[in-house]
Amino acid sequence: KILTEVAQKRLSAIREFTEFGSGFKIAMRDLEIRGAGNILGGEQHGHMETVGYDLYLKLLGEAVKMEKGELPSAPVDNECLVDMQVQAYVQENLRREFPEIQFMGEEKDNENVNFLYPTWILDPVDGTTNLMHDYQHSVVSLALCYQDEIVMGIVYNPFHEEIFSAIKGKGSFLNGQPIKVSKAEKLSDTIIGLGTAKRELADENFARFRRVFGACQDVRRIGSAALELAYTACGRQDGYFEIYLNPWDYAAGMLLVQEAGGIVTDFAGNPLNPREGGSVVGTNGNIHGELLKLL
Q: Does the predicted TM-score (pTM) go above 0.85?
């Protein structure tokens, strides 16, 4: 089949996203999973202490094998196809290595997940619209939840070869190097990321954006909640907020911010519950109260 120029561009982006998979596996080998095993504890999960990331995060190498004739014409179909293929591959490999750990994913029914027991939380491609337009800000986001707490999180941007990782109590890292949130103390000195979820709330959202824009130095919109939180964790921006996110959107990024010294709550200042979606605001901590007042 002869692809249109737009379809070829989208296919190129998908393939580039896929081809970085081997690099991801290698980088994961350099990060320690032992901390997660210690957190889980007990004989049942003790084997995790000796397992490297590469054994259960062979994420993308074979996940999105797309031939030219397999690319649907409708963009929404493209998004769903990529998400589903990546999720299927990741879920299969995680289940093979850790059959006792549950799985929560964007592209599945999660009704029977019991969060008192270890659970993977996956967003196979956070930023699918970005991916379809070759915007190169799309990530794989994977978190491990245990007893209603996020104990491990990974956000991987293959286009920039950046792997953000955190283990509860062990800190946050970018490609193995420690990261911290920014030191800005006033909202007027900050860059704030924002998300545009729920089109039906556009008027309310943009009024909120206007208030924040008037109070900070500038605003940004990346198009990936996980990446927005990762950027907040490493100090590239000072905060981020969105009216509604699902657990797979924020789980890994939330831990990144917290372990980097920041704060993540809902718009009312309450802790997030990884069982459910809701409003999310993550900051360096210093400006959290000031930003909350505008939301």
A: no
